[in-house]
UniProtKB/TrEMBL annotation:
It comes from Lacticaseibacillus mingshuiensis. This is cysteine-S-conjugate beta-lyase. Its cofactor is pyridoxal 5'-phosphate. Belongs to the class-II pyridoxal-phosphate-dependent aminotransferase family. MalY/PatB cystathionine beta-lyase subfamily. Its EC number is 4.4.1.13. Residues 74-391 form the Aminotransferase class I/classII large domain. It holds the Pfam family Aminotran_1_2. Coiled coil: none annotated. The keyword Ion transport does not apply. InterPro entries: Aminotransferase_I/II_large, C-S_lyase_PatB-like, Class-II_PLP-Dep_Aminotrans, PyrdxlP-dep_Trfase, PyrdxlP-dep_Trfase_major, PyrdxlP-dep_Trfase_small. Keywords: Lyase, Pyridoxal phosphate. The keyword Lyase applies. It comes from the Bacteria. PANTHER family: PROTEIN MALY.
Length: 398
């Protein structure tokens, strides 16, 4: 995809040099990688400033000068409901919504609430590594029905999933939709099959849908809430947020959406007993403004991400044609397989020491994807091309 003049203006207006601004992606590399000065293509945030209406709403709220105990802002639930309905054809009722300070924090809370120590939780690896941490760090057991990959891309292994769900000690599964890191947007048919299996074996589905707004290629995103006209809502909890959509992670606001009334009451009792934290006022102010006014900004951002993915594909096709990129349907994260060129134990020294790039390594998502790296494309197109050039140049030097 060629950048339009409008896309170029978007980049010019919103691109931010984040070096030296106390952010994890650029300035926090030593803690993760043991060194500084790597080209940061890792943690999932952006070099683009948030939409102006969000900044305006935050400034207006800060200028009030009062930060006492707040209520959820007027209009918040309407903004969320309208966004979900107009963009994803999904109904979300205000009474379904609970808050947390982030989707990862909510994952920990869901595991603590819904399972007991020693119990298994089903996931589908490779998958976002906090899934495993939320399970294992709380004394639960990971059971993976691994995704399978063939020439047509990544797919759910429904036989393996049914086998996992059929275990008498399995009561909870965590679904990643759209899928991080492989970039799939699961079709409505695939999601219906997952939910039907879960319903058959009475396995509660926690669906992490934080990347829902990034439709880069392939099918449109379908929320699990809307599958078969909401047929499975009684056996479903959805986690989402505007934090990825508008780059708001530090404002600490996420949704726990629980359609079933009895399950909501049970969660409320759990949250009260554990002094659960909710979202934050400024996070809610920013989220509401984004849902009300951020659509045009997001459209431009997605076009830049599509461009960056196309540039990455073209660069590797020309310079290192055996590098394998997973098709990017959803998220802004490209899963790149270097296995045709090197063994798993060579990946980190090659990427970090030779290429001087910071990435999320495939081994973090699954032992079976240890030759992969995850690259963040929500950034300056020049940085994407520089990262590709570094990899290609280093491969030619091997």
């Amino acid at each position: 995809m060629t950048l339009t003049e409008e896309n170029k203006e978007f980049i010019k207006t919103h691109l931010v040099d984040r070096r030296g601004t106390d952010n994890e992606k650029w300035d926090g590399q030593r803690a993760e990688f043991g060194t500084d000065g790597l080209l940061p293509m890792w943690i999932a945030d952006m070099e683009f400033s948030t939409p102006q209406p969000i900044k305006d709403a935050l400034i207006a709220r800060v200028n009030s000068g009062v930060f006492g105990y707040p209520l959820v802002p007027k209009g918040y639930y309407d903004a969320l409901a309208n966004w979900m309905q107009t963009r994803h054809n999904t109904e979300v009722k205000a009474e379904w919504v609970r808050f947390d300070v982030g989707v990862v924090n909510a994952l920990y809370r869901m595991v603590a609430w819904l399972t007991k120590p020693g119990e298994p939780v089903v996931i589908m690896q490779p998958v976002y590594y906090p899934f495993m941490k939320a399970i294992e760090n709380q004394g639960r057991v990971v059971v993976s029905a691994d995704l399978v990959q063939n020439d047509s891309g990544w797919h759910i292994d429904f036989d393996a999933l049914e086998k996992a769900f059929a275990r008498p000690d399995v009561h909870v599964t965590i679904l990643c939709s759209p899928h991080n890191p492989v970039g799939r947007i699961w079709t409505a048919t695939e999601l219906a099959q997952v939910l039907a299996l879960a319903d058959k074996y009475q396995v509660l589905v926690i669906s992490d849908e934080i990347h829902q707004d990034f439709e880069i290629g392939g099918p449109r995103f379908t929320s699990t809430l809307s599958i078969d006209n909401g047929r499975y809502q009684g056996n479903l909890i959805v986690l989402n947020a505007a934090s990825k959509t508008f780059n708001l992670a530090s404002l600490r606001n996420a949704h726990i959406i629980i359609p079933d009334e009895a399950r909501r009451a049970d969660y409320d009792a759990f949250a009260t007993a554990h002094n659960a934290v909710a979202g934050t006022l400024l996070g809610q102010v920013a989220t509401q403004a984004g849902y009300e006014h951020g659509g045009p900004w997001l459209t431009q951002l997605i076009q830049v991400i599509r461009h960056n993915y196309g540039e990455l594909q073209a660069a590797f096709a020309a310079g290192a044609p055996d590098v394998r990129l997973s098709a990017l349907e959803g998220t802004y994260l490209s899963f790149v397989d270097l296995g045709a060129y090197m063994k798993p134990d060579a990946i980190q020294p090659f990427v970090q020491d030779q290429c001087r790039i910071a990435v999320d390594y495939g081994a973090w998502f699954s032992p079976k994807t240890a030759t992969c790296i995850r690259m963040n494309l929500a950034t300056d197109p020049k940085l994407v091309l520089e990262a590709a050039d570094r990899v290609i140049t280093a491969l030619h030097q091997r």
